[in-house]
Every structure is written in C-alpha cells, then in structure tokens.
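Support request from a user on the community tier.

User writes: "When I paste my structure tokens into the form, the page sometimes reloads and wipes my input. The last time it worked, I copied everything first. Here is what I submitted, just in case something in the input itself triggers the reload:"
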C-alpha cells in the first residue's frame, strides 16, 4: 500500500511538472504570436491597407478558432465551467477574455463599415461583402464563449492594443475639428463627386501618414452611386475621366505640368507622383494643387491670373494613381516635391455635402471618406476669405 501511494504521488508530481513545463514551453509561442500580430497591424496600417487586412483576418480566424475548439474538445482542454458556473470567482478571468474579444471584433466591424467605399463595388457585391464580414464576426463572437483552459496573456494584450488603436482612430475621425487652420475652397467640379480618401486618420485617408499630403483629398465623379460604369480597363468607364475642372479659388498660376502620359488603368507612375498638375497661389502662403490631370488638357500657363470657377483642365490618370480621380490639396508652396512641404485642411463652400445619406448643415464643410459633394453650378464668385472661422465642425 505504501509503495502504491508513493508511486501515485510520484506520478502526480510528474504530471504536475509536465503541465508546468508545458506552460513554460508554450509561453514563448504566445509572446511570439502577440508580437507578430502587433507588427503586422503596424505594417498594414503604414501601408494604408489596415481595413483590408481586417477583412482577411476575419476569414483567417474563423477556421483557426474552429480548429482550436475541436482540438480542445478532443483533448479535454476547453473551459466548460464558463457555462456551468458562470458566476464563480475563478471564472472571472475567462469573462475578461471574452469581453476583450467581443470589444475587438465589434470594433473590427465598425471599422470596416467606416472604411469600405461602397461606390467601388456593385450593389450586390457590396451586400455580399457585408454579409461575409458580419457573418464571420458573429461566428467569432460566439466562438469566444468557448475558451480554452489556458489564458494566453500576451495574445490578449495584442488584441487589446488593436482595440485601443481602432477606438483612438475612430475618436480622431468623429471628434469635432476647429476651423481655425482650414482653407475655404469652392468645389473645382460640377455634379456629384465622392471623397475616396480624406479625413483625420490613416484608416480613411492613405495620405494622412505623409506630412506633405496629410490633408489631401482624393475625389472621384460617381454616376448612380458608382465610380465605374463599364470595363474596368478602359478610361472611359470611369465618370471622372475627362471631367472639366475649375479653379477652386482666385489666384495666380504658380506651377504647371501638362505633358505626362496618362497611365493605363491599374498602373502607376512612381517617378512623377503628382502627374500632370496645376498649383494656384492663393496668397498668404497658401497654394492649392490639383493633380492627376489629363495630358494636354491644362488651359492655363504659369503666371496667369485666374478667378474662381475658371476652366483649368480635365481630370485624368497621370502620376501615382491606378484610376482616374482628382487629387486636391492646399500646401505651403508650389512645388509638390519640396522637402518642407506641408498641407492645410480643406473646407468646401457653396456645395451640398451628404454624409450617411443625410445632407449636412455645418457649412463650410470638412469632408472625409464616403462624403458626397454635389456642386450644381460654378458661376464666378468674388474672392473668398481664406482666413478661417473660430467655429467647430464635424470632421
């Protein structure tokens, strides 16, 4: 009997030791996974594809979580007490993990809603995309309620970092912005246009991480809510192509480039980032630049005096762009390649701005991704005061 008890005790100690060794052996892997998640998140954000990566992450995590749960069922490593004794004190840490996961995945869903540009998809395609994204998120929320017995602290911290980042970016996007440093412009186009890149976050503005383009806007013409009406490889399938562009302010032409070829759809000119462009000196150290213009379409020359609403050029596909659109920014000099170039926020006057299907009333408007700008007429207007007001507006 004594010998049996000794063997049983030794066996139990060995099992305990193995479990402890197992925890020590898996701890570096937990840290590695957490570090990889943070580094990948930083990299995709720097590359301007954070929300694209989130959609891929959802599709990746659904089968991974299902596989881990099946593994836990087979090896008995699931924590069923979360359901059997949900209020027990020792279960509290699992509820913290559930809460951490739920916050992360819900923020992922809200981020995708904010960042996806519906005009880039057919209505049915966009519906399918939303169904897949929210379906995957729903599955992951439910699977979070089936945790393993082991709590992976580092991985949980990585998810918390992701939640903090997304929440912080959303706060930046929605926080009211003072108009004190903005420059008021008239829309340099007619019809209905969509802001594809713009706003105070890299989530919705690929320029935001670059000092020389931080406040820039990418705007494209839409027809029936779509940025493209035909073959994606043809310039003429994009309503922006060939659209007439007008001076958004009074001033003197300070810079003109008009001899660069327009890119085939999907290709870029990495050597001439702005492509064909015009910079107008508005005075007070402010220059408004209109870029990616159509080759040979510029109607003004350096030194010309222009008035608001005067014809300037046509929208094209030159420079660092894969599709026809207007790149618009207000900067502190005429040369886009200047090392000390800085930009200023843009406000639009005399337009209708629609956000989330509702016209806004806080003119002049700051705009951000997915805002629709409707300019019905561009009659010549008196010189606008480019000094800003002390009011605040929605970003």
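"...and here is what came back when it finally went through:"
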């Amino acid at each position: 009997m004594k010998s049996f008890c000794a063997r049983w005790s030794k066996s139990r100690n060995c099992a305990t030791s193995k479990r402890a060794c197992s925890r020590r052996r898996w701890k570096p892997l937990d840290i590695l996974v957490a570090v990889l998640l943070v580094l990948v998140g930083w990299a995709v954000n720097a590359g301007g594809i954070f929300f694209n990566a989130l959609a891929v992450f959802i599709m990746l995590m659904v089968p991974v979580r299902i596989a881990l749960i099946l593994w836990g069922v087979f090896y008995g490593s699931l924590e069923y007490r979360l359901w059997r004794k949900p209020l027990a004190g020792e279960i509290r840490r699992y509820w913290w993990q559930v809460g951490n996961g739920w916050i992360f995945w819900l923020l992922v869903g809200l981020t995708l809603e904010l960042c996806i540009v519906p005009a880039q998809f057919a209505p049915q395609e966009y519906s399918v995309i939303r169904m897949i994204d929210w379906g995957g998120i729903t599955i992951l929320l439910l699977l979070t309620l089936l945790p393993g017995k082991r709590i992976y602290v580092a991985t949980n911290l990585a998810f918390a970092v992701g939640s903090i980042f997304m929440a912080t970016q959303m706060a930046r996007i929605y926080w009211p912005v003072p108009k004190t440093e903005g420059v008021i412009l008239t829309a340099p186009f007619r019809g209905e246009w969509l802001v594809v890149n713009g706003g105070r976050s890299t989530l919705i503005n690929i320029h935001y991480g670059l000092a020389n383009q931080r406040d820039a806007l990418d705007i494209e013409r839409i027809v029936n809510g779509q940025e493209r009406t035909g073959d994606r490889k043809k310039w003429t399938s994009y309503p922006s192509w060939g659209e007439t562009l007008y001076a958004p302010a009074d001033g003197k032409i300070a810079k003109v480039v008009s001899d660069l070829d327009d890119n085939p759809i999907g290709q870029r000119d990495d050597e001439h980032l702005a492509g064909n462009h015009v910079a107008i000196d508005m005075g007070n150290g402010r220059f408004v630049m209109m870029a990616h213009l159509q080759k040979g379409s510029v109607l003004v020359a350096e030194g010309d005096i222009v008035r608001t609403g005067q014809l300037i050029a046509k929208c094209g596909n030159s420079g660092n762009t894969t599709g026809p659109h207007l790149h618009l920014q207000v900067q502190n000099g005429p040369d886009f390649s200047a090392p000390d170039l800085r930009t200023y926020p843009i406000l639009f006057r005399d337009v209708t701005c629609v956000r989330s299907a509702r016209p806004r009333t806080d003119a002049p408007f700051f705009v951000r991704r997915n805002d629709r700008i409707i300019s019905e007429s561009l009659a010549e207007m008196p010189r606008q005061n480019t000094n800003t007001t002390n009011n605040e507006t929605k970003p």
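Agent notes: The reload is a front-end session timeout and is unrelated to the input. The domain at 177-381 is CATH 2.70.70.10 (Glucose Permease (Domain IIA)). The first strand starts at residue 177 and ends at 178. Escalated to web team.
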